[in-house]
Amino acid sequence: MSEPVSPNGRRALDLVPKAEGKQTMKQFKSDQEVRWCPGCGDYAILAAFQSFLPTLGIRQENTVVVSGIGCSSRFPYYLNTYGMHSIHGRAPAIASGLATTRPDLSVWMITGDGDALSIGGNHLIHALRRNVNIKILLFNNRIYGLTKGQYSPTSELGKVTKSTPVGSADAPFNPVSLALGAEASFVARTLDSDRKHLTSVLSAAAEHQGSAFIEIYQNCPIFNDDAFEVLKNPETRDEAVVRVEHGEPITFGPDGAHCVVRRGFGLAVAKTAEVDPADIVVHDAHDPDPSYAFALSRLPGENLLHTPMGVLRDVPRPSYDEIVRGQLDAARTGKSLDDELDSLLYSGDTWAIV
Amino acid sequence: MAKQVRQLDRVVIRFAGDSGDGMQLTGDRFTAESAQLGNDLSTLPNFPAEIRAPAGTLPGVSSFQLHFADYDILTPGDAPNVLVAMNPAALKANLADVPRAADIIVNTDEFTKRNLTKVGYDANPLEDGTLDSYAVHEVPLTSLTVKALESFDISKKDAERSKNMFALGLLSWMYNRSVEGTEAFLRKKFANRPELVEANVTALKAGWNYGETTEDFAVRYEVKPAKLPAGTYRNITGNTALAYGLIAASVRAGLPLFLGAYPITPASDVLHELSKHKKFGVLTFQAEDEIAAVGAALGASYGGALGVTSTSGPGVALKGETIGLAVMQELPLVICDIQRAGPSTGMPTKTEQADLNMALYGRHGESPAAVIAASSPSDCFYAAIEAARIAVTYRVPVLLLSDGYLANGSEPWRLPKVAELPEITVDFATAHNHENPDGSTAFWPYLRDPETLARPWAIPGTPGLEHRIGGIEKADGTGNISYDPANHDTMVRLRQAKVDAIARDIPDLVADDPSGEARVLVLGWGSTYGPIGAAVRRLRDNGHHVAQAHLRHLNPLPANTEAMLRGYDKVVVPEMNLGQLSQLLRGRFLIDVIGYNKVRGLPFTAGELESALEEIVKNV
């Protein structure tokens, strides 16, 4: 997919030092024993990420992974990069401070549905709004795992859990819609078990200058098993998953039997055979107007039917860190800072006493 | 008419008016004129939190008190010798503080029936004898100003707004201060509106000339320059000094300064000031909330910057969890708490020093952090450098306590030479520090410097030192996750020992006891330094023996603290809280210190401390 560069022509990794020689997946594995539950979707994501990192071609020590709290947030311990396992919900703030001061780093953030959308919701939307150069991987399993099974802000209405024995009363967020509403410049969705797709989305995000938001549907076998089964089961997935590729007409299902068309202010699913081929929506991830991507994000009905997967939005927008660093560069005078400090202290109304 | 000139050694003036009357600006300008003249001075701005409370009401009164003298002074003065009251509300709100026989200058134009009723005056205090024991100068400031500006093509409203400059001109004449600096200031301030420059300058001069010509002001006063140590001086507020101190620390350490902040009274000026100094590489990040502000600062520290967050009490309450993370991760972090009256919203524009307990203990778990406090507006500069030095050297969060009084108050500051400022040494880890049994080497992020007990600061981008840190308990040395009971006990004690060890690296507490015969020690911390010092001076002038000591470091305390306290029969601890330092000293040393505690949102007056201390000194 052709990647739009930022308005000043910059790509996310331009300032990150390049690796000498070929890197291997092995060198990105830490010596720590991985301690997720057997069958957890996090294993697949970790493996995909470890094999993806060498493809970036940047120096190993210039990758940093920052996480919050939750099962997914243990991720940094298993990567032989720099990493910080921080506190609940605050990873976007910490990663923002790091990425803003260190353009030579590739900064990744690992979070979950509770971490990013509940306790850290404020930080997430503001990081996206600022467009700080961080890549956010939200592992969405639609449940609180580490605290053993309470409903999360992405659990479906009426979800019966330990804390909602007769069903939850609050409606869920659609994380992709939320990110788009927060002015995110890169928004994608993928699935833990689809390594190839997951890797392609990670690659696109890595190059994106500014914030990239990736929702990864991730299975929790203990507290919310098979939450995404409809998207994985060979018998249902073709009908359920709507793959989007920039520049390609959106069709899906067996032999492309279904397609996406415009309807009213939004989008709808139609039978390909029954519509004029010219009416089939051609996916445009670079559309400056986020309404299109938002409409796409609203396609799924009940039970995840018609869930778009892929890069929904990828547009150039100046990133916070490049703007503020530009301001600092413009202010520099070339004089020694000791001399500048001397001038600062002795500025304003001064008087001498002899 | 030749006017009489009388010599004074010190004067306290209070400008009081409506929030919209420009009293803070008037006070600032009079301060600058006095500084230029070489007086020592100290200021106390006092304003409501509301930007524009209803005009003419008591809650809308804003004041600025300035104490200037021909000798070194320590406080903004207990009571004004001169009150400038721009309206009835200003008179009513301030009269109780004004001693008999003092001068009161009132703007008679505002003493209308309606304005009097608004503040509950049944009769006009200018006429009913209320002010009989004062030297009242009735000046129609508004109408005189409007008249002086008749020929200007500006609105009546704009003309009336220049009345503060008329008042400033009059006071400048009375106290023999040059208005040249103010004229230059006005030309710069209103550069885009030349008509306002001329109007304000004209009003300023009209005020001066009014003093010169009218018979109501028969006497001019002179306060000679103070004999202060030789050097170059400027007037500085605590918040500006604190911001400069952070910049100086960044330059001295060779680390870029990152400030994460969320707007909050009275700390916002630190953010404003630092945002102006990008040429130093200072990056200011106005965060979405207090938690993000400290989080971003910690992220920047992790990346090798000098991470700082500035706030007031309510903000520190929100930052607690992140400060705890910094304790666990052992990263440098400076948290500036410009204290204000609490709890909750409290009184945002009023001062207090009741956040000491929060600074010391406001985190869960055994979570030691260093705590230091500034003692005067200019001392905020040095306190900021010291906070950064400790944070960077020991990889520990440091809470730097200032307060609203220091933040907005000002004093002359003898400027230091950059080369004389403390060095801050930064040593980032660059190499493996551990040898495995098989002879290979590794990087252990929690192996400590034997001297400081600091762990290595290995910043991302350093080859071969890739490692993971987090909030989960670390294994001693390797830094890997550990739930081992003995290891947790070890780590808790190590983190405490590291902070305790800072005591070896800070100066001993020094007592000021000129006669050497004092049996009573007055021990303070923070902004009470001035009032305590002034009270102690008065006691000594009256023949009493009393010692004074002041704490900069509150955690750890200087190594000789206990020994010093035990050297006196009585130890008195004045604090603008209910006894937080007293409690600490009693708990730590089993010494029954005597507290003097007031929480009124105002600094102590020297007079009240003098009385309280005299009782104790006499009865020891």
* CATH fold-type name of the largest domain in chain B: Pyruvate-ferredoxin Oxidoreductase, domain 3
- Biggest chain contact: A-B, 60 and 73 residues
Low-confidence stretches of chain A: none
| CATH C-level class of one domain in chain A | Alpha Beta
Shape of chain A: globular
Number of strands of chain A: 12
What Rg of chain A is obtained from the alpha carbons, in whole angstroms? 22 Å
**Can you give the mean pLDDT of chain A?**
95
- Give the CATH superfamily of one domain in chain A: Thiamin diphosphate (ThDP)-binding fold, Pyr/PP domains
CATH superfamily membership of the largest domain in chain B: Pyruvate-ferredoxin oxidoreductase, PFOR, domain III
What is the percentage of strand-forming residues of chain B? Answer: 15-25%
What general outline of chain B do the C-alpha atoms trace? globular
What share of residues of chain A is helical?
A: 25-40%
Low-confidence stretches of chain B: none
Any idea what the CATH architecture of one domain in chain A is?
Answer: 3-Layer(aba) Sandwich
Number of domains of chain B: 3
Helical segment count of chain A? 11
Which strand-content bin applies to the residues of chain A? 15-25%
Structural class of chain A: alpha/beta
